[in-house]
Design goal:
Elements (H helix, E strand, L loop, with lengths): L1 E2 L2 E2 L2 H15 L6 H20 L6 H26 L4 H10 L5 E11 L10 H17 L3 H4 L6 E3 L4 E4 L5 H9 L6 E7 L2 E12 L2 H28 L5 H4 L32
Antiparallel strand pairs: 1-2, 3-4, 3-5, 3-7, 6-7
Helix pairs in contact: 4-8
C-alpha cells in the first residue's frame, strides 16, 4: 500500500490489524475495506501535518493522553505477566481452601403459591404437590405428569451442579447441609415460593480443574498488591475536598480509562472474582 510518499508493507499492515484487534476485538470487515480505512487514516494524518495541526493545543493534549494511555497499558501488561502465580503457589492455595471447591449436583423444584394465571395454592396444596414430586422421583416416574404440568411448579430439566459461592447464601447452606444422595430439603426461596432441593451427588473439583480459577484469583490479588505498592512508592496525592464531590468534571460524560485499561474501557484490573 502507498499513500502519498508513505509505503506500508504487508507485514506492517497485518501487524497494525493485529494491534487494533488486540484492543477492540476482531474486525468484522473485509481486507479491502480495512485497507481503504487505513489509507484514509494515513491520508488525513498527512494532511493534518501539512496543515500544522499537530502543533495545535487541542491535538497536543490529545496526543499526550494517548501516549500516557499506551505507556500505562504496556506497564500494566508487564505487571500482569509478573503477577502470574507459580504451579506451587496454586497447589498451596488449593490445599488450604479445599472446601471452596466442593460441588453439589442438585435437582431443584420451585412451587409458587401464586401462579402466573392467578392459580393460588394453600399451604396444604403446596405440601401435597411437594410430596407428589418427591414420590415421583423415588419411583422413577415423570414428576411433571404427577403435578399435571401445573403452572405453579417449575422443575429443572436436569440436575445442576454448583460450586461453593455460586448460590444464594440460604440455598447454599441448605444444599451443603445434605450428606446423603437422594436426600431432600425444603426451604422458602421467598415468602411466596417453596423450593425443594434433592442432593444428586457431592464432589470436589480437582486441582487441575480448579487451576484456571485459582490462577486468575491469585494473579488479581498479586497485581492489586503490586499496584498498591507502586502508589505508595510513587506518592499519589489527591485533594480529598475536591474529589469528594459527586459532580463530574466539566464537560465529562464518561469515566476516564484507568491505568492498565484498554481504550474499549474493559477494566482488566477489576475482573470478577470467581472462586
Amino acid at each position: 500500500m502507498k499513500v502519498g510518499d508513505q509505503k506500508i508493507t504487508q507485514a506492517q499492515f497485518e501487524q497494525m490489524i493485529a494491534d487494533l484487534e488486540a484492543l477492540q476485538g476482531p474486525a468484522d470487515l473485509s481486507r479491502k475495506k480495512l485497507g481503504e480505512n487505513f489509507a484514509s487514516l494515513y491520508m488525513l494524518s498527512q494532511q493534518a501535518v501539512a496543515d500544522h495541526l499537530e502543533s495545535s493545543p487541542e491535538v497536543v493534549r490529545q496526543m499526550a493522553i494517548d501516549r500516557t494511555q499506551i505507556l500505562s497499558n504496556a506497564e500494566f501488561a508487564k505487571l500482569q505477566a509478573a503477577a502470574k502465580p507459580t504451579p506451587a503457589q496454586i497447589s498451596d492455595y488449593y490445599n488450604a481452601h479445599l472446601q471452596d471447591y466442593d460441588v453439589v449436583t442438585l435437582r431443584r423444584v420451585f412451587i409458587w403459591k401464586k401462579g402466573p394465571a392467578g392459580q393460588d395454592l394453600s399451604d396444604q396444596e403446596v405440601a401435597v404437590l411437594a410430596e407428589k414430586v418427591r414420590q415421583a422421583y423415588a419411583s422413577g416416574s415423570d414428576p411433571k405428569k404427577v403435578v399435571n404440568n401445573s403452572a405453579n411448579v417449575q422443575i429443572d430439566p436436569s440436575p445442576l451442579s454448583f460450586q461453593r459461592g455460586e448460590m444464594p447464601p440460604e440455598m447454599e447452606k441448605a444444599a451443603f447441609a445434605m450428606t446423603k444422595e437422594g436426600e431432600w430439603r425444603q426451604m422458602s426461596a421467598d415468602p411466596g415460593t417453596v423450593l425443594l432441593l434433592q442432593l444428586v451427588s457431592f464432589s470436589r473439583r480437582s486441582l487441575s480443574a480448579a487451576t484456571p480459577q485459582i490462577e486468575k484469583k491469585l494473579q488479581k490479588e498479586n497485581l492489586r498488591e503490586e499496584l498498591e505498592s507502586m502508589k505508595k512508592k510513587t506518592g499519589v496525592w489527591m485533594d480529598e475536598t475536591y474529589f469528594a464531590s459527586k459532580s463530574p468534571g466539566p464537560g465529562s460524560k464518561a469515566e476516564p480509562a484507568a491505568p492498565g485499561q484498554a481504550k474499549n474501557n474493559s477494566d482488566r484490573g477489576e475482573e470478577k472474582d470467581e472462586r
